[in-house]
Amino acid sequence: MIPAAFEYLRPRSLEEAVACLLQREPGTAAILAGGMSLIPAMKLRLARPATLVDIVRLRGLAGIVRSAEHLRIGALTTHAALGGAPELARYPVFAETAGVVADPQIRHRGTLGGSLAYAHPAADWPAVFLALQGEAQLFGPQGRRSVPAEDFFTGIFETTIGAGEILTEIRFPSVRERSGAAYSRMCLQASGMALVGVAAQIMLDAEGRIDHASIGVTGVNAVPFRARSLEMRLRGVLPAAAALRDLCATGIPEAEPLSDPHAAADYRLQMLRIHAERALGRAFERARAAVPGLGYSAPVTRDGEPVVRP
Amino acid sequence: MKISLHVNSRPVEAEVEPRLLLVHFLRERLRLTGTHIGCDTSQCGACTVHLDGCAVKSCTLLAVQADGCEVITIEGLAPEGTLHPLQAAFQEHHALQCGFCTPGIVMVAHGLLGRDSAPGEAEIRAALEGNRCRCTGYQNIVDAIRCACERVREGT
Ligand SMILES: Cc1cc2nc3c(=O)[nH]c(=O)nc-3n(C[C@H](O)[C@H](O)[C@H](O)COP(=O)(O)OP(=O)(O)OC[C@H]3O[C@@H](n4cnc5c(N)ncnc54)[C@H](O)[C@@H]3O)c2cc1C
Ligand code: FES
Ligand code: FES
User: Fold this and answer.
1) Is B44 near chain A, with CB under 8 Å?
2) pLDDT in tens, B10-22
3) Other beta carbons less than 10 A from residue B39's beta carbon
4) ipTM surpassing 0.95
5) Which residue of B has its CA nearest to A191?
6) Is A43's CB within 8 Å of B127's CB?
7) How close does chain A come to B78, measured CA to CA in Å?
């Protein structure tokens, strides 16, 4: 399979890349990052951009920077780099997610920015982007702007990225004390894509109760979403395994699950509850493990059991 | 578009259409037919080569993306007429039947060997996640890779 013919450009700066996009007919030029979604689509002629603007060699768009307030990840940072970055030691959810995206060869090329910009309804990173309350940094003809995760995805394969705009960086608030995050998914064996994927972040208060939870869901609706009502119900809860299970079982009303040959809607809903419970359970374990200093005793159930299954 | 790159340590210059895939460039222009096309849909890994030291699927890469890079194919692992320890171990362990998947799997194993001289079974299987073999059932492939790692480690 051979893609339709196209013009190939390799601009030397972001400004030049934006100019390349703007000089072409609207909708005919596409950014090329790792190419792991775009090239397969072009080979199948599902995508036929007349121009490819290759940004992979642009400096400063790959890499991880930590500051007091932010974790900043360049859009061109590969899945493989996110899987093994020492800067992400306190953010194990990145390695956990990177480890389930595609396969090693794809992970060497595919990028975080490309995955978010592509907005595949079952891609993994969108769930983490939502749960960690990331912000997409865009550069375009009007300069820079920042879009919160919840406003980023607008449809199947659709985002808020406008004409001539390039996603440059994904920014997350720095990890707080007593917080943890995790990703749990069920995948389709044939394609490896998620049937259901849930990322959860939990922040505990000094007594070990949930102060704040944020939950991102992929693979269920046409557009990835935050499970806001479950987040609200989790507030103030001592996250015992049974409590998490009960709360997840009460449902996630934001879910409008797709029914397709891979899974019926009610099956997706059931898997959603299970993976929400698993992601929350692991996020809680990590939050508890992140508690610095002594004198903190792990919460136990009324029967004195440890609150999360090992 | 004109590209210049190194393929198996030899400099190569060529005029290519941007839509030419790296795998077609290697097989049809350079006649390096050891790199196979199995699925052509980025799944099977038969087309795996190394690009600047990383295993990638050459059916999902444009030749122009390899401009300025170092590409290693299965032909580049050992001098003509000799076998790399991985290739020898595959032969001894009966780690191939039809052999179609083998070049890609050996290239992945070569990458693994470069990172980890003593990978366990779990690491080897994880490294092979992007490769399909329709014949062997993988067990002999895992054994061959483990044996080759041992030999390389011990310098025998
Ligand atoms: C066999 C296979 C299995 C896979 N399995 C999974 C999986 O399990 N989970 C998963 O989540 N994904 C999976 N993927 C998709 C993979 O994660 C892709 O790497 C990723 O979706 C796209 O990243 P990329 O850098 O390759 O983007 P590209 O393919 O280069 O681009 C994708 C789209 O985003 C646009 N784009 C890219 N970067 C930018 C930018 N910086 N600014 C603006 N627009 C941009 C492009 O124009 C294009 O439309 C799989 C892919 C393959 C081939
Ligand atoms: S031919 Fe490239 S992955 Fe199958
Ligand atoms: S040996 Fe036949 S496909 Fe692997």
Assistant:
1) no
2) 999 999 999 999 9
3) 13
4) yes
5) B43
6) no
7) 22
